[in-house]
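Ticket reopened. Same input as before:
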Amino acid sequence: MADASKPSLDPSRRALLVGGLVAAGGAAIAAGSARSQSAADPMAGHDMSTMPADPYAAPMQGMAHGNMTTVGLVDHNRNGFDPTAMLTDWERGTTELLPDGRTLRTFEVDAIDKEIEIAPGIFFPAWTFNGRVPGPALRAKEGERLRIVFRNLGSHPHSMHFHGIHSARMDGVPGAGLIGPGEEFIYEFDAKPFGCHLYHCHALPLKRHMHKGMYGLFVIDPDPERHPENATVAASRLLGSPENAHWQEMAMVMNAFDTNFDGANEVYAANTVGQAYMNEPIRIDKSRPVRIYLVNVTEFDPINSFHLHANFFDYYDTGTTLTPTLRTVDLIMQCQAQRGILEFSFADHEDGMYMFHAHQSEFTELGWVGMFDVRSSAK
Amino acid sequence: MNEQVQPKRPALSRLLLVLVPLAAMLGMFVWIASLDPLRSFNNGAPPVEALTVERTILDETGIGLLVRAGGSDAMVIAQVAVDDAFWTFTQNPPGPIVRGGAVWIQIPYPWVLGEAHAINMLSNTGASFEHEIAVAVPTPKATVGQLRLQALVGAIVGLLPVALGLMFYPAMRSAGRVGVSFLLALTVGLLTFLLIDMTSEALELADQAAALFQGSAMVWLSGLASFLMLMAIGRWRGTPEGLALAFYIALGIGLHNFGEGLAIGGAFAAGSAGLGTFLVLGFALHNVTEGIGIAAPMLRIRPPLWSFAALTLLAGGPAVLGMWAGSLAYAPQWSALAMAVGAGAILQVMVEVTAYLMRQSSDRQAVLFSPAVLGGFLAGLGFMYATAALIKV
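Engineering reply: fixed in the latest deploy. New output:
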């Protein structure tokens, strides 16, 4: 399709000739007008022969680099999910007590075909978990028994493959929980190890099922009782604890979409919608520390990254430790399916807009960029 | 007299005979449009989309693109990325672009002089349409200085070589019968080269046009139509020769130079650039033969002096007009059309010059393969081919 719009650009022999002639003529005219160049010429730049050599040298009205953005806004209501709400929308399922005193946590997840708007006006025929991309951010506590009731309401075979510790029967690969349209499967395993994990469809071809939108965060909070040496840290990670309430936690899935199916991405984002956090900056209360659960599920590009402006953070690769694996960095890199936890604070910063984005400029400029709107809680 | 034997139907019934099939056709369209009997063919595939960039304008406000939609349905340009960065843009007129419709896309992008830029337009279905700006230079505007500059270029590539070629006229007059045959055959040879060169350039341009213009068919058919019409006009009062034939050659070469002017102006607007006194000289040499060709059929007559000026203007002047049109209102389909019409005109003068050449000799068939004629023809071809090598880059 794209070929039709590609004119051949071989400079023809005559064009080359003319270029030469014009260069010569232009030089003559420029020489002729050199004496009068002290006065500002309102038409300067209109005649190519007198155009300044560098367009940046002359002010180009309406060409501020702030124009690097998508046009319009995505209709989050039609999509049925909002990137801002998704930051803090943890899916905790339902719990019941097992006879042995453990907690059984049950999640219900449906695979659904759905067209979603991934950048203003651009629609993508996605395969989703629960109608959203990324799928629900599942959150459990270390040691719990997990039961995930998975129904395939889509048009292709799908599965849920969890990055965690479980038996082969529960792995979500063909022959172990991969189900056809209309079928149901229940995955069951213990929540371990604690950390920041992910799940995704493992139907084949994997690449297609991944980039169509079948992935989500799978966070297992550490049980403070199992980590007496770091009980306070563990408690701060445990959703619902008083220590945790102080934190501003966010779920971010770095993803991208190949809208024309040519094996390269057209739109990059955190949580699906390109430029979403530029159009609606993320409000940060600077008196409270920030924790981001970050996973990279970008297809086709081997790595993605997260860069924070004007600040540094501690990083817990895969989130399976209670002490940072990297301290005081402002950029981390994640390969496909790599994930980790970022912790930082703006307590000592001035109020203002602080940018974050992938530091692959291409990803940034194709949508994976956002702003933290840092303010005191009173304001 | 046979027609009068046919019984004449009343006007009303003749009208009815036309109206009935027309009404049936209308009814069929309404039926297909309203009941959609073909909907079972709908397999859920997205509509076919096509987008052709016809014109690129680079100026102090950024990048402007004239794009034409040619898909199965109206299409929507949702986002535009320049060099892998989403950029704001305005579309005029806004809204979905109907099949065959063209809109301007204005992108306030700080392009960089002399460098390449890639523009990617994304439709609402996610299809991408790429357009490459190979070398970014400001697009010429219709200022007095600019038009004068282009007229100068047009004069150098069009008027000057023809005038120089015509200056050989006095020397050519001294040629004998064989010499004249040689010169006429030389003219046919160079016209053959121009015909091939022009047809292939027209087809190349037609390839860049939107599919709905059916570039290849348009080029062949308009070339054929132009050939037939010029033949008919030329033979209105007998076969042309002498001054009339010279004017027909000048017209054909003029149309050729108009097409070339369009291509140069278009490439000019597209930002191709380079330097070369060498190229200028090669070009003048290449086109000098055009003047010789125009002079060839006038060797047996005594043309008035004004006719040389008129022939020069007719053959070379269109290059200036082509330059202006090409750089200010360039579109591949119109350039291809102009070139095809020119190719038809070239073919017409090839036929007429050959006919004239044959009339010069008593043995009409044998003369074509006489050493002078064959030699002249091949010399014309060879000269054009060799000098073209100087200016093909």
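Confidence is low (pLDDT under 50) at residues 1-64 of chain A. Chain A touches chain B through 66 residues (CB under 8 Å). Please confirm and we'll close it.
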